[in-house]
Specification:
This protein has about 500 residues and is an alpha+beta fold. The protein has eleven helices and 19 strands. It binds zinc ion (2 copies).
C-alpha cells in the first residue's frame, strides 16, 4: 500500500511553523533603552531667574546612546537529518540483510523529508567516490562508521582514512586520537556511536578531542532493555589489552555502567552527562543506524546551521547547536536563554551564558500535547511541567554557577491502550536478548492496514504507525511516556 502523499506536505508545514516561531523569537525586541537622561539641554524650565541676556538657542541634542543594545541570537536555520545510515552498496551486513543500494537509501531519506543524510558504511572509504551519493533535495555527508569494536561516525570525509584501529594496549588511545586528528584535518567530525549499545562496542578508550556522542541510537527501547555491566566493561578492557598494561578504562564509561536505573539507552545519556559534568563540551546527536526495513530519521538530529550545505551541518555539530527528536515531524524544540534581563533570548543551544547572574531559560515545544518537559541542570531535573497544548512555552529562572549546563528533555505520552497492547510483547521479546525477536514483536505490533511499505526498495520499507513508534521509544524510567526530544546544552561559562 502506498503511503498517503500528504505526509511530507504536512511535515513541511509543521517545520515551516517551527521555523517561523524560531524566527519570531529571534526578532523579538524589547524596548528597554530609556530616553535621554535628564532631558535635552536647554529644556530646564526651572532654571533660576537671571538678569543675564538670554542664551542663544541650544543646538539640537544628539541622539543619546541606547542604555542597552539587545544581543541577538546567531542567525541560522534548523535543518533535520540523520547522521548514521548504511547502504548495501558498501556495507556487507546491510547487503546480507536485504538493505538498499546507495541511490535507494538516499531516496528513502528524501521521502521522509530529511534535509541532510550522512552515509556511514562500516570501515570503508568507498562512499567518498560513489557517484550515486548525491541528492537534489538533501545535503549528503560522506563518511564512515569507523572501528570494529568501538564504533564511531567519521563524518564529512573528503579523503580516505584508516578504517579501524590496529593496535592493542598502550598504543590504542594514541592511535584513536591520531585518526580523530586526521578527520578534523579534513573538516569532519567524529561521533562516538552507540557507546553503551552492546558489550563489544563499549567506548572503553577516552579520546582526547571527539565532537559528539550518539546519545539516542535507533528507537530508544528497541535494541536492548538490559543495562551494560561492569563485567562487560572489564571484558572489553581486557580484550583490547588495556588491563594487561595497567591502563584504566574510560572513567565516563565506568560512571555509565554504574547507572542501573534503566536501559543501555539511559546509560548512553549518563555517559554523555558525565563528560558534560567534567567540563567538556560534547554535542548530542542521534542516529537511526538504518540497515534496511525502517526509514532514516528515527531519531532525527536537528542542527542550527548558518548554511544549507556540508559546512553548515558540520559547523553546527562542532558548535553544539543540535537537538534530537523522535521523528522527522517532531516534537520541535526551541531552547534559548536570556542572560541580561532584556527578554531577548540571545543564547541558543550550544551558546554560553554568564555564571553568577540570573538567567531565564525558555523552551518552546511544538507537537507534544499531553507530554512533559524537563529542564535538566547538570544531570538533575531543575523544573518539570506538563505540556498542555500543541505550542507550549515553558520558562525557568536560575543563577548558574561556573561550568553548569542546562538542557531540555521532552517526553510524549503513550496511549495507555497502545501501551497495554504492545509493551508486554516487546518486553517478552527483549527478554530473549535476540534482536530478531524484537523485530518479530514489532511486526506483530503493526496492524496490516497501517503498513506503508512501497518505496520501491529491496526489502519493503516500513513506516511505523505513531502509536507503535511511541511504544518502541518508551522510557523505562518514566512509565507512560516515551522519549520525545533531547537538546544539547546551553553552557555557563567559567
Ligand atoms: Zn555501529
Ligand atoms: Zn551503524
Amino acid at each position: 500500500m502506498a503511503r498517503p502523499r500528504s505526509g511530507p506536505v504536512v511535515s513541511a508545514a509543521v517545520l515551516a511553523l517551527a521555523l517561523a516561531l524560531a524566527g519570531c523569537a529571534g526578532k523579538r525586541t524589547t524596548v528597554q533603552a530609556a530616553g535621554p537622561p535628564g532631558g535635552a539641554p536647554g529644556a530646564a524650565s526651572a532654571a533660576p531667574a537671571s538678569t543675564a541676556p538670554p542664551a542663544p538657542p541650544a543646538p539640537p541634542a544628539p541622539p543619546a546612546p541606547p542604555a542597552h543594545v539587545p544581543r541577538q541570537p546567531a542567525p541560522g536555520t534548523w535543518l533535520r537529518g540523520d547522521l548514521h545510515s548504511h547502504t548495501a552498496t558498501h556495507s556487507d551486513d546491510a547487503r546480507r540483510q536485504g538493505g538498499d543500494p546507495t541511490r535507494k537509501t538516499i531516496q528513502v531519506a528524501e521521502y521522509v523529508g530529511l534535509d541532510f543524510l550522512a552515509i556511514t558504511d562500516h570501515r570503508t572509504n568507498d562512499v567518498i567516490t560513489d557517484p550515486d551519493a548525491t541528492s537534489g533535495r538533501m545535503v549528503i555527508l560522506r563518511g564512515m562508521e569507523w572501528g570494529s569494536g568501538m564504533h564511531a561516525g567519521a563524518i564529512g570525509l573528503t579523503r580516505p582514512i584508516q578504517p579501524d584501529y590496529r593496535t592493542r594496549g598502550a598504543g590504542l588511545a594514541p592511535e584513536v586520537d591520531a585518526v580523530i586528528d586526521e578527520v578534523h584535518a579534513q573538516g569532519g567530525v567524529f561521533v562516538l556511536d552507540h557507546p553503551l549499545d552492546e558489550g563489544n562496542h563499549l567506548w572503553v578508550v577516552d579520546p582526547k578531542a571527539f565532537d559528539a556522542i550518539e546519545v539516542w541510537h535507533s528507537q530508544w527501547s528497541m535494541r536492548s532493555w538490559a543495562p551494560r555491566t561492569q563485567r562487560d566493561l572489564d571484558d572489553k578492557a581486557a580484550g583490547l589489552g588495556l588491563t594487561a598494561v595497567g591502563l584504566a578504562p574510560n572513567p565516563h564509561l565506568v560512571t555509565a555502567v554504574a547507572d542501573r536505573r534503566g536501559s543501555s539507552s539511559l546509560q548512553a545519556l549518563t555517559f554523555w552527562e558525565s563528560y558534560l559534568n567534567s567540563g567538556r563540551r560534547v554535542t548530542a546527536v542521534g542516529g537511526g543506524d538504518r540497515h534496511m526495513l525502517l526509514p532514516q530519521g528515527s531519531p532525527t538530529t536537528h542542527v542550527y546551521a548558518r548554511s544549507r550545505d556540508v559546512q553548515g551541518v558540520l559547523d553546527a555539530i562542532r558548535e553544539g547547536r543540535t537537538y534530537i527528536s523522535r521523528t522527522p515531524v517532531g516534537p520541535f524544540v526551541t531552547f534559548a536563554a536570556d542572560g541580561d534581563g532584556d527578554r531577548v533570548y540571545e543564547a541558543l543551544i550550544g551558546d554560553e551564558v554568564s555564571p553568577g547572574a540570573p538567567v531565564v531559560f525558555r523552551a518552546e515545544v511544538l507537537g507534544a500535547t499531553g507530554g512533559r518537559i524537563d529542564f535538566v541542570k547538570r544531570g538533575q531535573v531543575l523544573h518539570t511541567e506538563a505540556i498542555v497544548g500543541p505550542h507550549h512555552i515553558a520558562e525557568v529562572r536560575d543563577v548558574p554557577a561556573a561550568l553548569d549546563w542546562y538542557r531540555v528533555d521532552v517526553y510524549e505520552a503513550i496511549d495507555p491502550a497502545a501501551r497495554n497492547r504492545h509493551l508486554a510483547l516487546l518486553q517478552a521479546a527483549q527478554a530473549t536478548g535476540q534482536r530478531w525477536a524484537a523485530l518479530a514483536a514489532m511486526a506483530v505490533m503493526v496492524p496490516g492496514g497501517a503498513l506503508h511499505t512501497n518505496l520501491g526498495t529491496v526489502l519493503p520499507t516500513v513506516l511505523l504507525p505513531d502509536d507503535v513508534d511511541r511504544v518502541l521509544n518508551a522510557s523505562l524510567k518514566d512509565p507512560g511516556y516515551c522519549r520525545g526530544a533531547i537538546t544539547s546544552p546551553i553552557y555557563a561559562g567559567r
